[in-house]
Amino acid sequence: MASWAQVRTQTRQLEGQTETLLPQYGQLSTLSETPTSPTTDETSLADQVTTLLTRRATLLDQLADLRNTSTDPSEKQKRTGYHKLHEQKLTDHRQRFSHHQSQIQQKREYAQLMKGVHRDAINYRAAQDPASAEADYMLEERGRIDRSNQGADSLLAQAYAVNEGMGLQREQLERIRRRALDVASMVPGVNGLIGRISIVFFIS
Predict the structure, then answer these.
(1) CA 9, CA 62: separation in Å to the nearest integer?
(2) What angle do CA 8, 12, 15 make, to 5 degrees?
(3) In the chain, alpha helices (H)
(4) Among 24, 28, 61, 116, which residue's Cβ finds the most Cβ atoms within 10 Å?
(5) pLDDT > 90: what percent of the chain?
(6) How far apart are CA 92 and CA 79, in angstroms?
(7) What is the mean pLDDT of the chain?
(8) How far is residue 50's CA from residue 39's CA, in Å, rounded to a whole number?
(9) How far is CA 192 from the centre of its chain?
(10) How far does Cα 66 stand from its chain's mean position?
(11) Which of 92, 124, 14, 105 is CA-nearest to residue 59?
């Protein structure tokens, strides 16, 4: 049977892993567009958190059994305190996980409802005015394309900004070099030093 120290070390490791995964799972409830069905990432994260919580509950039972294996009263008291601490953390993590699950499910149900309403509206308009329904479909597709283009434009804008910044830095260095050459023309013995600086500048 594992010792108190070994079981507690395993418990703390699993607590750390849970603390890492819970925020990742919680971020799924903040997505602007929640998928109408669970994604692979969502299912994987949920399974990992569930497994961790189950393993921690098992280890917590082992800690409860190991509390009284020490003959030192002060050690028993410390172990009882640690057990309560791990028990409280497990309860807190279970509550957070359940809260995230509830939020994700609510957003998914809302997304499913809106998708159904949208589909019904399209079907109704198609029955009433086929030409108008076709126009709505084209506008919706155009909207999807525009959102994709906006993402690409944002990346290009960032790239242009970086390139422009590098150009400005090069212009500033060139102005500094010219000013240094002007000073060198007035101060004997500095030309050689400025020449070496110029070589380094152009190489860079």
Answers:
(1) 12
(2) 140
(3) 4-27, 40-66, 73-128, 130-186, 191-203
(4) 28
(5) 39
(6) 20
(7) 76
(8) 17
(9) 54
(10) 38
(11) 14
Residue with the two structure tokens 């155009």: 142
Question: 190 phi and psi, to 5 degrees?
Answer: -100, -15
Burial class of residue 86 (count of CB atoms within 10 Å of its CB; 0-12, 13-18, 19+): buried
Q: Give tens-digit pLDDT for 58-101.
A: 999 999 999 888 888 899 999 999 999 999 999 999 999 999 99
According to DSSP, residue 29 is labeled G
Structure tokens at 128: 């009433």
Determine if residue 35 is left, alpha or beta; phi over 0 gives left, psi from -120 to 50 gives alpha, anything else beta: beta
Residue 17, amino acid:
Q
CB 31 within 8 A of CB 109: no
- pTM: predicted TM-score of the whole model, two decimal places: 0.57
CA–CA separation, 118 and 101 (whole Å): 26
Residues 6+ apart with CB under 8 A from 137: 122
CA terminus-to-terminus distance, the chain: 65
From the list 114, 108, 119, 115, the residue with the least C-alpha distance to 34 is 108
What is the Cα–Cα distance from 10 to 124, expressed in whole angstroms? Answer: 59
CB proximity list for 68: less than 8 A, separation 6 or greater: 76
Sign of CA dihedral 81, 12, 68, 61: positive
How many angstroms separate the CA atoms of 25 and 41, rounded?
9
Q: What count of other Cβ atoms lies within 10 Å of the Cβ of residue 99? A: 13
